[in-house]
Amino acid sequence: MNIPKSVKTYCKKCKKHTEHRLKTFKPGAARAMSKGQRKHLKKTKHGYGGKFKFPIKPKKQTKKPTFIAECPVCHSKRYFVIPKRMKKAEIAAKE
């Protein structure tokens, strides 16, 4: 699905509606020593417990697309999530 490059939405910093530019959101690298990662290592890579097998969960085939909206006036950024699941979402080349 093609999403327009800019969308008019509310800016909390300016306290008015402005035309925000959208960029695709890319998550950063996961922290190596986060609580979940430590818990995972404790379960899997410790002692003589044998091979730990996780229960197989079916993965969801689609995701809700996340973008970063930037205000042109004050340059504040915030998440812009489209609340519909879709397989592919990209920012349109032309408006």
Tell me what the structure shows:
InterPro entries: Ribosomal_eL44, Ribosomal_LSU_eL42, Ribosomal_zn-bd. Belongs to the eukaryotic ribosomal protein eL42 family. Residues 30-55 are annotated as: Disordered. The protein has one helix at 35-44; strands spanning 2-3, 6-11, 16-24, 66-70, 77-81, 90-91. Strand 2 and strand 3 (16-24) form a beta hairpin. The protein has 95 residues and is mainly β. It has a domain at 1-27 and 60-95: Nuclear Transport Factor 2, Chain: A.
List the helices and strands and how they pair.
Elements: E1 2-3, E2 6-11, E3 16-24, H1 35-44, E4 66-70, E5 77-81, E6 90-91
Parallel strand pairs: 1-6
Antiparallel strand pairs: 2-3, 3-4, 4-5
How do you describe this structure in short?
The protein has 95 residues and is mainly beta. The chain has one helix at residues 35-44; strands at residues 2-3, 6-11, 16-24, 66-70, 77-81, 90-91. It has a four-stranded antiparallel β-sheet, with no helix packed on it. Strands 1-6 form a two-stranded parallel ribbon.
Largest sheet, in brief, is: 4 strands, antiparallel
Low-confidence stretches: none
Any idea of the CATH class of one domain? Alpha Beta
Radius of gyration: 20 Å
**What value does the average pLDDT take?**
89
The CATH topology of one domain corresponds to: Nuclear Transport Factor 2, Chain: A
Given the helix and strand composition, which structural class is it? mainly beta
- Percent strand: 25-35%
Distance between the termini: 14 Å
Residue share in helix? 10-25%
Cross-sheet strand order for the largest sheet: 2-3-4-5
GO molecular function: structural constituent of ribosome
Family: Belongs to the eukaryotic ribosomal protein eL42 family.
GO biological process, one term: translation
Protein name: 50S ribosomal protein L44e
